[in-house]
Design a protein that fits this description.
The protein is mostly helical. The protein has 61 helices and two strands. Helix content is 55%, strand content 0%. The protein is extended and about 140 Å long. It starts with 12 loop residues before the first helix and ends in a 5-residue tail after the last helix.
Length: 1210
C-alpha cells in the first residue's frame, strides 16, 4: 500500500495499523486532535450504542412473542439441543423505521426509577482492550450498524433447474467475447461516437447536454467556437487582455505555450487546405501511428530550403545547432564519440598515476608490459575486441572485466595473466611503473583483492587452480624456490628471544576479537545463504572489505571468509578432495597462504584453529607422505613427499597460541623422523628440502619448549644432535651444517632454562639438568672452531648457550669445568687485550655484545668462595673501556643493546664513574625507547626508567611525578618479565604485534626524551583526557614547578630540545583554558602567576630565547609533544591563536607571557601568524614590554618591519 494514499473502507486492518504506527514514529502533526471533556449534564443520560442495539433486539423479540428470559432462568445445558428458529430473521426494511411512520415515535410514559433502570450501563460481553483515544481506530461496523441491519434470506417462490443452451443456438461467449478476448465494458464516449459515425448510427447519450446530443454536425464545427472566441476577444479591454495573457503564461508550461503559438500561426493555411479537401471525395485511409508529425510551414527554414534551394547541398553539421531535424545518424555517432573523448580527457587530467597504468598500460599473456610503439602481428593472439582493438595486449581494466567471463577457459587465462603481472611487479619494485601496478592490486579503488578472492569460489577445477595461483601471487612475497631457501636462513631465529614473533600491525587496523557462539552461528547462516544463493553482497560491504584489504590484506581476506573456503578445498577429515588428488602444487600454495595469514598475528592463528584447518593439513602434508625423499622430483611422485609449508604452519600456529601449541605436542612427534634421517639420504634435487625440514622441525620443538611442552621422544635425538655438532667441527662444514648446528644449540639453550626449574615444564620434571648439559664439551669445541673460521652466527649461539649454563652455576655448581669454559671464552681469545677497542674479536654487533655481557655477568654473580678468582676478573672486565665504548655506541638501538645495557647497569660497580655525566640521560632514553616497543619490553623499560629516575633523580619529587613516568599495565609487566626469564607458565602466546615506527635520528631521540620528562605538564593541559592527572593529589602549580626542576637536573643546556620546551611553556600559560576541553571539568587556572612557576619560566626563557627556531620545527614539536594531539590532529596555528587570545584576556602584561609571545612573533615569518597579532590583536602591542636583548639577534630590516607593524621593542 502506498504511503501517500489515504486509506479507504476496503483497506485491511493491517494497513491501517501500519499507517498509524508510521504516524506516531515520525511524530507528524495531526490534522485533527481529540480533547476529552466531561459529559454534559442532561436530564436523561444517553445510552451507549451497545445498549441501543440490545434494546432494539429486545423490542423485536417482544414483537415476535419471544421475550428475553429473566436473569434468574438457568442457562440451558450443553446437552440440550438448540431450538430451531421458529420465526425467520426480519428483513432489512422491517428494521429501518421510516420518518413518515408515526408508530415509531410514540412517546413512552415511564417513571424516574424505570428510566434509571433502563439507562443503567450495560456491560459488553466481549469487551475490547483499553486503547488510548489517540490510537483508537475507526469502528466501521458500529457506524454502519443501523444501515445494514441484520442479514435475512430471500424467499424463493419458484425454483428453475439449470439447462444447457440448444445446439442450434449460436455460441455466445461471456461479456460478448470475440476471438477469445472480452469486449471492453467501459468505453469512452468519444470512441462510442466514432463507432456511431462509422456504422451510420446516431445513438445520442441520454444524459448528455442538448448541444452534444444534437444530430446537426454543424454544431460540432470548430469555426463555430472560433467565431465566438474571436468575438469575445474583440470585446475585451486592454487590461482584461493583459490579465488573461498573464494568467495563461502563469498556468501553462513554456512547451504548451509554444505549441499554441505554432498552431495559431498555421491556422490560416490549414483553413484553406481543409476547404480543398472537402471539395474532393474522401478516401478511407488506414490508421498510422507516428511519433513525430512534420508541420508544413512556408516560413520554416527547412521548407524554404526545399522550395527555393533544392539543388544546394545541405550542410547538416553547421545547421544541427538550429534544429534537431538536421541531426543525422552519422552526426549523432560523431557527437557521442566526441563527448566520450571529452569525458575521457577530463578523467585523464584528474587521474592518478596508478589510474593511468590501470587503463593505459597493456600486458601480454606472460605479464610483461607491451611497447606500444612496437608493431605486433595479429596472429600472436594479443588483439581483441576491446575499446582499442587496434592495440595489442590487455589493460588491467580489461583483464578485470574478463575475469567475470562465463567461459571457464577465458577466466583461467585471465587469472594466470594477472598472477604473472603481480609476480613481475614484485620483482621490479625499483621501477615506478611496476610500483603503480602493485598500487592498483593493493588499492581499494578497483577491488582487485575481491576479484581474486571471488575467483577462489569457482567450481571449475582449471579456473580454481588459476585462481589459487593469482591469489598466492598477491599474498606471498616469494616464489616456492625463494621461500624454501629463505627458511634455510635461521639467523634471526637463532638469536636471543628469536622464538618470539613480532608482526607489524598496520596503522588504522585493530586485531580481530575472538568469535563467540552468536558470531559463529551468524557466520553459519551466512554461509548457508551464500550456498543457496539467497545472500547477496551489497556494494557497501564490498567497499568495506576492499578498504580493509588495502590497509591489511591478511585481515581483509579473513573478513572475506577465505578460511572456510580453504577448509572446503582441503577436503574432509581424510584429507582427500578433487584438488588434493589432481593438483598438489595448488594445495601447497594454499598451505603457504595459510602460513602467511598466520604470521600476521595471534588473532588470525586462533581463527585458523577455530576453522579446524590443522587436521587436514597434517593429514595431507605429513601423515600421508613418503620419507625419505630418495627419488628425483617427478610430477607423479613429488606430491607424496612431506610438505615444508605444513611444518612451517605448525611452527607459526604454535607461536600464535599456547592452546594450539598444546594440541600440537602429540602431532609434532611425526616430524621427529625428519631429524633422525640424514638429508644426505635424499636425492640431489631434494637435499635442500630435507635440510629445510630438519631446521623447521628444530624450530617447532624450540617453540614448544618455550611454553614448557617437551616433545616425548626428545631424548632419542642425542645421537643426531651429536652428529650435527661433529659436522660443525669439521673443516668441510658447509653453511647448511653450520645453520643446523646453531639451531640445535639454540634449542639446547631453552632446554637449559627448563631443566633449571623442573616446574616450568608441563608435566613437571619432563627434562633433567644432565640432558642439556651433556652437550657442554661439544659446544665448547664448536665455540673454538667457529671463532677460528669466523663463523659469526654459530659463535654467538654457542656463547649464548655457555652464558645460560653459567647463569645456574650457583644452583648446579660444576667447579671442574668452570675454569675450562672461562679459558675457552676469554683467555684463548688472542685479540683480547685490556683497553683494546677490539677486545670482542672480529665483530661488534649488538647481539654479540649482549651474549658477551651475559657470560661475564654470569661469572660476576658467582658466590662460591672457590670461584672468587673468576668473579673478580669478570667484575674488572665489566668496567673495561672497550666494553663501555661498545655500550655507548649502541645503548638503545634494539632489544639486544637495551637488555645488555640493563645487565651492565645492574652488575657494574661505580657505573657513573665509568660512564660519565650523561649516564642518566642514556638510561632514560633506553627506557623510553623500550616503552614504545610494546608488551615484550614493558618490564625492561620500567627497570631502565627506575634506574634513571626513581632511585636517585626524583628524590622528593617521586610522590607527585612518579605516577606520570611509571604507568604500565601490571599484567603486561609480568608477561614481559616471564619472556626474559624464559618462564612459559605465564605466557599465552609468543606472537606480539607491534606498530611500525619510522627510523629516528639523534635529534628525534632528544625530542622524545624531552617530551617524556615534560609529560606531566601535558597531562595538566589535557586534564579532561589524562586519567593520571585527574587522580593526582598535588595542585597544578606544584606539579609544574617539580617538572621544571626535574628537567633542570636531567638536561644540560645542550641536551634539552628547544622547540619542545617552547611548546611546553605555551601549554603552561593555557592550563585550565584549553580550547575544546570537556565542559564541566574544573581545573586550576593562571598558574603562571605562582611565584615559583614564574621564576622557573623566567630562567627557561633566558636560555631558550637565545637560539633561533623555525615554524616547521615548532609544528613538529607540537605534534610529538602529546599523543592526544596526534589523535585529534589539532594544527599548531589553532594552538597559537588560543595562546594570543589568552594573553589578551588574562595576562595583564605579564612579563614572561609577553616575552614568549614576542619571541614567537620574531621567529615565525608566516603572514597569518603576524597578521593575527598586528591586526586582530593590535590593542595589546603597547603591553609587550620586551627589550631587544631578550630575543634572538635580528637584522636591521627585520627590526624595521616589526617596528612599522607596531611592535616597539625597548
Amino acid at each position: 500500500m502506498s504511503k501517500f494514499t489515504r486509506p479507504k473502507f476496503n483497506v485491511d486492518d493491517d494497513d491501517l495499523e501500519r499507517l498509524q504506527q508510521e504516524f506516531f514514529d515520525k511524530e507528524q502533526m495531526p490534522s485533527a486532535k481529540v480533547y476529552r471533556k466531561s459529559a454534559p449534564v442532561m436530564d436523561k443520560p444517553k445510552r451507549s450504542l451497545f445498549a441501543e442495539r440490545l434494546a432494539a433486539k429486545g423490542s423485536s423479540s417482544a414483537d415476535q412473542g419471544n421475550p428475553m428470559p429473566a436473569l434468574e432462568n438457568p442457562m440451558p445445558a450443553l446437552e440440550d439441543p438448540m431450538p430451531a428458529l421458529e420465526n425467520p430473521m426480519p428483513a432489512l426494511e422491517n428494521l429501518m423505521p421510516t420518518l413518515e411512520d408515526p408508530t415509531t415515535s410514540k412517546p413512552s410514559q415511564k417513571t424516574r426509577m424505570e428510566e434509571d433502570n433502563e439507562f443503567e450501563p450495560v456491560m459488553d460481553p466481549n469487551p475490547e482492550p483499553h486503547v488510548p483515544v489517540s490510537k483508537k481506530m475507526i469502528d466501521l461496523t458500529s457506524l454502519l450498524g443501523k444501515v445494514l441491519g441484520e442479514i435475512t434470506e430471500h424467499d424463493v417462490k419458484e425454483v428453475k433447474a439449470p439447462s444447457l443452451d440448444s445446439m442450434q443456438q449460436p455460441k455466445r461467449t461471456s461479456r460478448e467475447q470475440k476471438n477469445g478476448f472480452p469486449k471492453p465494458m467501459h468505453r469512452s464516449e468519444f470512441k462510442k461516437r466514432l463507432e456511431a459515425q462509422k456504422n451510420n448510427k446516431s445513438k445520442p447519450r441520454m444524459d448528455a447536454p442538448p448541444q452534444v446530443a444534437s444530430q446537426n454536425p454543424a454544431l460540432l464545427e470548430p469555426s463555430l467556437f472560433d467565431d465566438e472566441n474571436e468575438r469575445k476577444i474583440q470585446e475585451m479591454t486592454e487590461e482584461e487582455l493583459a490579465e488573461a495573457r498573464e494568467e495563461i503564461m502563469n498556468t501553462l508550461s513554456p512547451d504548451s505555450i509554444a505549441l499554441l503559438m505554432k498552431g495559431l500561426k498555421n491556422k490560416s493555411s490549414k483553413a484553406k487546405t481543409k476547404e480543398e479537401e472537402e471539395a474532393t471525395p474522401k478516401k478511407k485511409e488506414k490508421k498510422k501511428v507516428c511519433f513525430e508529425k512534420e508541420v508544413e510551414d512556408k516560413d520554416d527554414l527547412l521548407e524554404m530550403k526545399k522550395q527555393y534551394y533544392a539543388d544546394v547541398p545541405t550542410e547538416n553539421e553547421k545547421l544541427v545547432w538550429m534544429d534537431n531535424r538536421f541531426l543525422t545518424a552519422d552526426i549523432k555517432a560523431q557527437e557521442a564519440k566526441r563527448l566520450k573523448e571529452l569525458e575521457f580527457e577530463s578523467d585523464e587530467a584528474n587521474a592518478t598515476e596508478a589510474e593511468k597504468v590501470y587503463r593505459k598500460v597493456r600486458f601480454d599473456l606472460q605479464g610483461q608490459i607491451i611497447d606500444q610503439n612496437k608493431d605486433i602481428s595479429v596472429y600472436k593472439g594479443l588483439h581483441h575486441h576491446g575499446d582499442e582493438p587496434e592495440k595489442a595486449g590487455y589493460t588491467l581494466a580489461e583483464l578485470f572485466y574478463l575475469a567475470r567471463s562465463q567461459v571457464p577457459s577465458q577466466r583461467s587465462m585471465v587469472l594466470n595473466t594477472l598472477g604473472r603481472i603481480i609476480t613481475q611487479a614484485k620483482k621490479n619494485q625499483d621501477k615506478p611503473i611496476w610500483v603503480n601496478v602493485l598500487t592498483v592490486f593493493r588499492g581499494k579503488e578497483h577491488k582487485a583483492s575481491i576479484y581474486l578472492r571471488s575467483a577462489l569460489d569457482d567450481r571449475n577445477l582449471i579456473v580454481l587452480v588459476s585462481a589459487i595461483y593469482a591469489l598466492s601471487a598477491l599474498v606471498l612475497d616469494e616464489d616456492d624456490a625463494s621461500w624454501e631457501h629463505s627458511l634455510l636462513n635461521a639467523h634471526d631465529f637463532n638469536q636471543f628471544l628469536g622464538h618470539l614473533a613480532r608482526p607489524i600491525l598496520p596503522p588504522g587496523v585493530n586485531e580481530m576479537r575472538r568469535k563467540g557462539l552468536n558470531d559463529k552461528l551468524t557466520e553459519l547462516v551466512d554461509r548457508v545463504r551464500q550456498t543457496s544463493g539467497q545472500h547477496v553482497v551489497n556494494e557497501e560491504e564490498q567497499r568495506d572489505d576492499a578498504a580493509l584489504a588495502e590497509r591489511d590484506l591478511m585481515r581483509g581476506l579473513i573478513k572475506m571468509n577465505i578460511l572456510p573456503r580453504i577448509r572446503y578445498l582441503l577436503g574432509n577429515e581424510s584429507g582427500n578432495s578433487e584438488l588434493t588428488e589432481m593438483d598438489p602444487a595448488s594445495v601447497e600454495r594454499l598451505v603457504r597462504i595459510l602460513v602467511r595469514l598466520a604470521e600476521s598475528g595471534q588473532d588470525i592463528c586462533e581463527a585458523i584453529e577455530e576453522e579446524e584447518l590443522l587436521e587436514p593439513v597434517i593429514l595431507w602434508g605429513l601423515i600421508n607422505t613418503q620419507w625419505p625423499m630418495t627419488d628425483e622430483v617427478q610430477h607423479n611422485k613429488s606430491s607424496s613427499y612431506p610438505s615444508l609449508a605444513s611444518v612451517r604452519l605448525l611452527t607459526v600456529l604454535a607461536q600464535g597460541s599456547k592452546q594450539i601449541a598444546e594440541s600440537i605436542v602429540e602431532k609434532a612427534t611425526i616430524t621427529l623422523r625428519f631429524l633422525v634421517t640424514s638429508p644426505d639420504a635424499a636425492s640431489h634435487s631434494m637435499k635442500q628440502r630435507a635440510y629445510a625440514l630438519q631446521l623447521e622441525t628444530l624450530k617447532l620443538i624450540r617453540v614448544l619448549a618455550c611454553y614448557g611442552f617437551i616433545v616425548p621422544t626428545l631424548e632419542d635425538l642425542h645421537n643426531p644432535v651429536m652428529n650435527w655438532l661433529r659436522a660443525a667441527l669439521s673443516n668441510k662444514c658447509t653453511e647448511l651444517d653450520s645453520t643446523r648446528a646453531a639451531t640445535a644449540i639454540g634449542l639446547l639453550e631453552v632446554l637449559l632454562h627448563c631443566a633449571a626449574d623442573p616446574h616450568k615444564t608441563t608435566p613437571a620434571h619432563a627434562i633433567d639438568w644432565h640432558q642439556p648439559t651433556s652437550y657442554l664439551p661439544a659446544i665448547t669445541a664448536v665455540l673454538r672452531a667457529s671463532r677460528a673460521r669466523e663463523d659469526q652466527d654459530l659463535y654467538e649461539t654457542a656463547l649464548g648457550y655457555l652464558g645460560a649454563w653459567a647463569t645456574y652455576l650457583n644452583k648446579f655448581p660444576e667447579s671442574e669445568v668452570v675454569g675450562e669454559i672461562w679459558k675457552a671464552v676469554i683467555e684463548e681469545d688472542v685479540s683480547f687485550e685490556s683497553g683494546n677497542s677490539v677486545a670482542l674479536g672480529y665483530t661488534t654487533t649488538t647481539h654479540h655484545v649482549l651474549r658477551y655481557i651475559q657470560f661475564i655477568v654470569a661469572y660476576a654473580s658467582l658466590n662460591h668462595q672457590s670461584l672468587s678468582l673468576y668473579r673478580d676478573d669478570a667484575l674488572v672486565r665489566l668496567r673495561s673501556a672497550q666494553l663501555i665504548h661498545f655500550l655507548k655506541q649502541d645503548y638503545s638501538t634494539d632489544i639486544f643493546s637495551r637488555y645488555g645495557f640493563w645487565l651492565w647497569l645492574k652488575h657494574c660497580r661505580e657505573r657513573e664513574k665509568c660512564w660519565g655525566m650523561s649516564l642518566g640521560l642514556c638510561e632514560l632514553e633506553s627506557g623510553i625507547k623500550g616503552a614504545e616497543m610494546g608488551i615484550v619490553e614493558t618490564w625492561l623499560a620500567q627497570e631502565l626508567l627506575k634506574l634513571s629516575l626513581f632511585t636517585k633523580t626524583l628524590g622528593d619529587l617521586t610522590l607527585s611525578l612518579g605516577v606520570f613516568y611509571f604507568q604500565h599495565d601490571e599484567n603486561n609487566y609480568m608477561l614481559s618479565k616471564a619472556i626474559f626469564e624464559m618462564d612459559g607458565r605465564k605466557l599465552n602466546t609468543l606472537m606480539y604485534t607491534r606498530k611500525q615506527e619510522p627510523e629516528k635520528e639523534k635529534e628525534e631521540s632528544t625530542l622524545e626524551t624531552t617530551a617524556f620528562i615534560l609529560s606531566p605538564i601535558d597531562g595538566l593541559y589535557h586534564l579532561d583526557k589524562c586519567k593520571v592527572a585527574q587522580k593526582v593529589q598535588e595542585d597544578a602549580s606544584t606539579i609544574v614547578a617539580n617538572t621544571m626542576e626535574l628537567c633542570t637536573k636531567l638536561f644540560y643546556t645542550t641536551d634539552i630540545n628547544q622547540e619542545m620546551a617552547i611548546v611546553t611553556l605555551m601549554k603552561i600559560f593555557l592550563i585550565g583554558d584549553r580550547e575544546g576541553r570537556m565542559a564541566g571539568m574544573e581545573s586550576e587556572r593562571e598558574i603562571f602567576r605562582d611565584d615559583r612557576v614564574s621564576k622557573d619560566i623566567s630562567q627557561w626563557l633566558d636560555y631558550l630565547c637565545r637560539k633561533k627556531t623555525t615554524l616547521s620545527q615548532l609544528e613538529n614539536a607540537w605534534r610529538r609533544s602529546s599523543e592526544y594531539i596526534r589523535q585529534t590532529q589539532v594544527p599548531f596555528f589553532q594552538f597559537y591563536q588560543t595562546f594570543v587570545a589568552q594573553y589578551a584576556a588574562v595576562s595583564f602584561g605579564h612579563h614572561g607571557f609577553a616575552r614568549l609571545l614576542v619571541y614567537l612573533v620574531t621567529q615565525i615569518e608566516v603572514v597569518d601568524y603576524r597578521h593575527l597579532l598586528f591586526s586582530d590583536y593590535r590593542d595589546i602591542l603597547p603591553t609587550l614590554h620586551v627589550t631587544k636583548e631578550q630575543v634572538p639577534p635580528l637584522t636591521m630590516k627585520e627590526w624595521e618591519n616589526l617596528s612599522n607593524a607596531g611592535l616597539k621593542l625597548l
